[in-house]
Design goal:
- The complex is a heterodimer.
- Chain A is mainly α.
- Chain A has one domain: Non-ribosomal Peptide Synthetase Peptidyl Carrier Protein, Chain A.
- Helix content of chain A is about 60%, strand content about 0%.
- Chain A contains 4 helices and no strands.
- Chain A is globular.
- In chain B, strand 12 and strand 13 (about 480-485) form a beta hairpin.
- Chain B is globular.
- The mean pLDDT of chain B is about 95.
- The chains are: A mainly alpha, B alpha/beta.
- Chains A and B meet through helix 2 and helix 3 of A and helix 10 of B.
């Protein structure tokens, strides 16, 4: 459930079809996911799940898999 | 609509939020341009910059105060308050001159500049504002300076950002993580609130505002139910919760003075309600603040429909305020065009809640003379309708009104009202071209255009400026009626004929031989599809998007109805 919602959010921010979102997809893999796009993505994920990452985490959460794993830890899902 | 965003910080992420907020305008067709990060002044003064190439309708300029004064803030103990004063003046005036240069070259655009907000954190927290070393004073000085300078510039608008920051709090609207990671200062909420704020100003400039506030009475204008609690039992006054209702009434009165029409829609015995309005000492709103009173036991949706007919206004210009969820649901269901906001369940929230309603539905930056007189004019309208019922023939009724049309040419005092009419008029509007104040000013200065406006006066008083004709002289020697519109409240009295007749005679005296008119159909202007035909113009062109008409002024005229006296006033 969580993963499905996350993929939707990511696809919408990165402006790519949902089926292109997978855990390996990383910063730099698509045009929109540059350094500014990364912050936009994190902002959207924070808003969608009501969470807040710290600034070190934001720099490290550079792939869909890493974001999903961290969300699971925080939300306990 | 084209919107440019310039900032001295990274604010590109506001794009999404601006689109959401502006979606209802112009079918949501919005183009955006983001200036280079930190290139505010360069974009504004460099005529080859991307900003000039983009040529926006609205240039949003977001200035972060901590960045603008970064040098002083990083070394505050080396600046005395007098140095600070000079530096602030210089920086704000540099920004202002850049904006005014831009507006000189692009006079049809608007520049929206925020009030400056400094971070409410300092390492000299107690010294600040008490000694010569007072960096926080920059915020006050800069905003005062901006306000002073802006007074002379009509299309520069100050956006009250620091008030929004006060409302929700700096800690919520700013986020230091994004600042250090990407030079983005605002949080997601901050971006969203800022976009909402800018959109409000844009809607105000574009005249996207409702016209009528419909009010329930019991538990809305006062606490309790008059029919049960009686005159002494209702809550309204200076003490206790009654003050919340009294404060709410004061705010409603101020909104009325800005030109919003008020009407009562209440299920009550009229005599009970009259007693409150006549005898309750704490009532702020008086009967003559309202244009219509619907106090009866009929269905509210039906009452609202009648009000729309009596005022000759569309239901989409109404906002309905009622504490009863049942009544709100019924109106929402039967009249979906009417805006029906939720009502706060705690009366102490009423004043603050109402301000947000105004912010959302009644945005307005400038007040025109028309706005101040509007309630009176519509009261006259309601009385005219009553009088009309007494006459058997329309012409007898029109004669009894003793109408006088005062027509002005290029009258600069009327610019904002004329722009407002082009923005708002839908039914009697042949071309539906929407113009801003800057556009109208340009037409008045430009010899290729003439701007006529019409004020209608009758025995019930003035109807205000209610008609506009804009003429464009073409290179081939013909004249084109670029815009012809009349406010719907005076339709059906022959005024349009009197107006066009005057314009035709004036143009003939200026040597114009051929006058052309166009009709562009919209969903709402069917009423005037054959207007030029009725006035004696010849149809010369027709396709599915428009019809074009022509009149040879050397052999034809438009007849002025003999029940209207016309007076021409020619201004510079």
């Amino acid at each position: 459930m969580m993963e499905e919602k996350l993929f939707k959010v990511i696809a919408s921010v990165l402006e790519i079809p949902e089926n292109r979102v997978n855990p390996e997809l990383s910063l730099g893999d698509v045009e929109k996911w540059d350094s500014l796009g990364h912050l936009e993505l994190i902002l959207a994920v924070e808003e969608a799940f009501g969470v807040k990452f710290n600034s070190t985490e934001i720099s490290e959460l550079t792939s869909v898999g890493k974001i999903a794993a961290r969300l699971k830890e925080i939300l306990g899902a | 609509m084209k919107v440019a965003v310039l900032s001295n910080i990274n604010i590109d992420l506001i794009g999404k939020y601006l689109r959401e907020n502006l979606r209802s305008l112009e079918d949501g067709k919005i183009e955006m341009y983001f200036g280079g990060y930190g290139q505010v002044v360069e974009e504004l003064i460099g005529e080859s910059s991307g900003l000039y190439e983009f040529n926006p309708d609205f240039a949003i300029i977001f200035i972060d105060a901590d960045e603008l004064f970064r040098d002083i803030l990083s070394n505050p103990l080396s600046y005395l308050s007098e140095d600070i004063r000079g530096i602030v003046k210089e920086r704000v005036s540099n920004l202002f001159h850049a904006i005014s240069k831009y507006l000189d070259i692009c006079p049809q655009g608007y520049a929206l500049v925020n009030t400056l907000v400094m971070a409410p954190y300092s390492v000299m927290p107690y010294m600040d504002l008490n000694t010569d070393y007072s960096p926080s004073v920059m915020e006050f000085l800069a905003n005062a300076e901006l306000w002073e300078l802006q007074k002379g510039l009509k299309n520069m608008v100050i956006v009250n950002w620091h008030s929004m920051v006060n409302r929700y709090g700096y800690n919520r609207l700013y986020d230091s993580r994004y600042w250090y990671l990407g030079r983005i200062k605002l949080s997601g909420e901050g971006l969203s609130r800022l976009a909402y704020l800018y959109s409000g100003y844009i809607k105000a400039i574009k005249g996207k505002t409702k016209k009528v506030l419909l009010l329930d009475l019991d538990n809305t204008l006062w606490g309790g139910i008059i029919g049960e609690d009686g005159l002494d039992g209702i809550e309204l006054g200076e003490d206790g919760i009654g003050k919340a209702y009294r404060d709410f009434q004061k705010l409603v009165k101020i909104l009325k003075e800005q030109g919003v029409l008020l009407a009562v829609v209440s299920k009550n015995n009229p005599s009970d309600v009259d007693e409150v309005f006549e005898k309750h000492p704490m009532m702020v709103l008086k009967k003559d603040d309202f244009v219509v009173f619907k106090v009866n036991w009929s269905d509210k949706a039906q009452n609202i429909k009648e009000i729309a007919e009596e005022l000759n206004l569309g239901l989409d210009s109404f906002v309905f305020i009622d504490d009863s969820p049942f009544e709100r649901e019924a109106v929402k269901r039967y009249l979906p065009e009417v805006v029906v906001p939720d009502f706060p369940d705690d009366p102490s929230l009423l004043p603050g809640w109402f301000c947000e309603i105004v912010e959302n539905y009644f945005p307005k930056i400038w007040i025109t003379e028309e706005d101040r007189k509007r309630s009176k004019m519509y009261q006259g309208e309601v009385r005219r309708k009553e009088l009309m019922r007494e006459f058997t023939s329309l012409e007898d009724y029109l004669r009894s009104l003793s109408m006088k049309a005062v027509i002005s040419i290029n009258d600069r005092r009327h610019v904002s009202r004329i722009a407002q009419l082009t923005q708002r008029t839908n039914q009697f509007n042949l071309t539906t071209r929407r113009y801003t104040e800057a556009d109208i000013e340009r037409f008045m200065e430009n010899p290729e255009h003439l701007v006529f406006d019409l004020e209608l006066i009758d025995k019930f008083g003035t109807n205000g400026i209610t008609g506009v004709i804009i003429i464009l002289f073409r290179k081939d020697g013909t004249a084109l009626i670029d815009t012809f519109l009349m406010s719907c409240r005076i339709i059906g009295r022959g005024v349009e004929k009197a107006f066009l007749s005057y314009v035709v005679n004036y143009l003939r005296s200026q040597g114009v031989k051929i006058l052309k008119g166009q009709y562009f159909p919209t969903k709402k202007n069917q009423l005037v599809s054959n207007l030029y035909g009725e006035m004696g113009f010849r149809k010369v062109e027709e396709d599915e998007n428009h019809t074009e008409w022509e009149m040879d002024l050397s052999s034809r005229s438009v007849e002025c109805p003999d029940w209207i006296r016309v007076e021409g006033r020619i201004e510079g």
